[in-house]
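Lab channel / #folding
Pinned by the channel admin:
"Please post every new chain as: sequence first, then the structure tokens as a reply. Keep commentary short and put observations after the output so the thread stays searchable."

First post following the new format, from NK:
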Amino acid sequence: MTKKHIYEFGNTAFLQGAGAAVVMTEDVGFLEDKKFTVTTVTPAKGSTVAKKEIDFVPFGHDDKLPLIIMKKIQENTIVGSNIEFKSNMAYGDGLTVFRRTKNEGEIKIDELLPDDAPEIFQFLSDSNYMRVMQEVAADLVVFGDAFVHLSFGKRLKNDKPKVVQIWHREMCFSRISKQDENTKRIEYHGYSSQWGEQNAPDDVIVTRLLDRKSPLYDLKVRTGLVINPDTGEKEDEGESGYTVSLNMPVPGRYYYNRPYWWSIFLDWYEFSCAIPKFKKALLKNQMVLKYHVSINMSFWPKLYKAEGITDADADKQVACKKKFLQNLNDFLSGEENAGKSFVSHFQYDRINKYEENDIIIKPLESFIKGGEYIEDSEEATNVICNTMAVHPSLKGASPGKSKNINGTEARELFIIAQVLFKPLRDMMLLPLYLAKEINGWDKNIEFGVKNIMLTTLDKNTGSEKSIGNEKV
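Reply from TO:
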């Protein structure tokens, strides 16, 4: 009895006896909430907090959830593409500074140039806010939360607070402290590249976290711009900066968000990943035969005779046979031979009533057609895109055939998609409004993200830019 083997290739395997391909998937238990154990750390040098020890809440099981999520995004082409698409849509056509005025009942929007507000544009340039927006957009799309730090720089004792720069703090490297028992608030933000790798990282930069419910009011209280309701006096804490959370509201979450689209990780994500792995294992382990070649045993003596090889030259006979088989293989597999004819001789046995052929070539039909699981792949893609609120036709061809849409449908879908990004864009702009209040910028100046509204090609460029419904 021939022994049947099992061949393993990473997360796939081929069972020779059953003729089956196996795809191994991971457990999705990483999304489950478990009773956490806080991580107690001592703030590293450079922190604005002098407190000796602070308890931080782990992000997911073993404090590894952010890195696990990023790894899963990178391993799935659909999810990764959707994240990139949504991040780019959130960024739109970039930041704009404008002044909104009202004249005879009509609201007018005027976009400002650097000469109109030099201090603001210099601040945006110093903070490289265009990059900050892109980083914040990516974190908000993936995690439903993002952190930025408002830096006041070095302050003397009597200096008024002034935001000089805004820094982005990557979500993967951010943790927040356990709720304070007295204030009932989350007081601190911890920034470290070692979260989830060490039990107690020694490089955590700790800063004070503004109240998530009302960060602007909290900032004004802490900087002495308004009266502290607890003391009845204006008090400036003298900090060199504060961190603000830009978290999107997700009911039932207190410390870290679980975005709605993470539900794909329960079933459909693994199914989507399994299909290409299964097809790869199938193609890699399935022997595909194109032809069945039958050669009559009486053909070889005739071939040897034609080549002048006698029965005594056994080595020459072997070499002649190999050469003929190689030539036959080249003939059947070579692209340049496509469409050519092959001629073989046969004779008819009148007694036994059958044809006696020298060579018979029969093409074989393989069950691997090259289009296996297209419908399954399409179903998984559509479910994932629907859960992530991305129409497949907006970012490329949909799976399957005849799934293209016309220009009018594409424009309408594009407009709807941009409208749905309004809440996320508001969070991206929040740090600028905090800086505006602290720095005393013109109250009539506002910030926005330009939309790119697609039009028909007969209107010059085929696109126009707007802030909301107002063209600029």
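NK: The longest helix spans residues 314-333.
TO: also worth noting, The chain has a mean pLDDT of 81.
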